[in-house]
Amino acid sequence: MPTPQKPRTFTFISRSAPYGNNRPRLCLGAALATAVFEQKVNYLFMDDGVFQLLANQNADGIASKTLGNALETLELYGIDQVMVLKESLASRHISSEDLLFPVQLLSNSDLQSLIESSDYVINL
Amino acid sequence: MITTPVIFQRQFKATVKFSIIVYAAPASSQAASTALQFVKTLLHEGHDIYRLFFFSDGVHNTNRLVVAPQDEMNLPREWHRLISNYEIDSVACVSSAIKRGILNEQEAKRHELDSSTLLDSSEIAGLGQMVDAMVNSDRIVHFG
């Protein structure tokens, strides 16, 4: 596999609620793989994706794995730029105290510069 | 307004290196068919395909056991024809594939199953191949 000279910046935007489909897991899997290959990774939750961040999740009742636990692996893989869109939280009446772990709050205008500064943007 | 003469436009038309990521299954989403048409058009226009990467439900496009009704396109077969003719690098994500029953001979043997199901024009590999494709292509287009 040809290796690039310098790491690129990848921004993953996770926009789906945690348990309706496999998109949140795909997004997480792709981001972790990208981090393993020593690229710079930003991870943003927006739209219904913010529901993934709610604390005290338990998916035992639907015979599924709890996504919230898996999200904690982001940090283990060296992904420290974990962000959430403020407007998406507000429109769903979620406060930042309801979240699993401290996450950087981003405004719509920050989002614009985040995308501008990224080499790749992956929406899932 | 200055316009470039047609002869120069053709001469300077750049070849772009694309990679295509397909998330859509052939029987339930138009996106899989759109991806195929898009790749055909790119090749027709003289562009390069660095890699096709089938991810999530997209791996169903690499199933050799698909039977389509007579008046419908057999999408996996069309992909197979295109990939073979143009010798395109085509990869199905391993974790997506095996949980959907898409196995090459090696995986079938490993999991003690009686048949492989992967079209031999594609191979099974990890997500690293997707990262590699993104880093080494000029454009990435996602379908589905």
Unreliable stretches of chain B (pLDDT < 50, length at least 5) are none
In the predicted model, the low-confidence regions of chain A spanning at least 5 consecutive residues are: none
- Superfamily (CATH H level) name of chain A: DsrEFH-like
Give the strand line-up of the largest sheet of chain A: 4-3-2-1-5
Q: Tell me roughly what share of residues is in helical segments of chain B.
A: 25-40%
Describe what you observe in this structure.
Chain A is built from five helices and five strands, in the order E-H-E-H-H-E-H-E-H-E. The longest helix of chain A is centred in the N-terminal third of the chain and has 14 residues, at 23-36. Chain A has one domain: Hypothetical Protein Ychn, Chain: A, CATH 3.40.1260.10. A five-stranded parallel beta sheet of chain A has the order 4-3-2-1-5. Chain A has 124 residues and is an alpha/beta fold. Chain B is α/β, with parallel strands linked by helices and 144 residues long. Chain B has a five-stranded parallel beta sheet with strand order 4-3-2-1-5, with helices on both faces. In chain B, helix 2 (30-44) runs parallel beside helix 3. The A-B interface holds A 1-2, 4, 8, 10, 22, 26, 29-30, 33-34, 36-37, 39, 120, 122-123 and B 23, 55-56, 95, 126-132, 134-136, 140, 142.
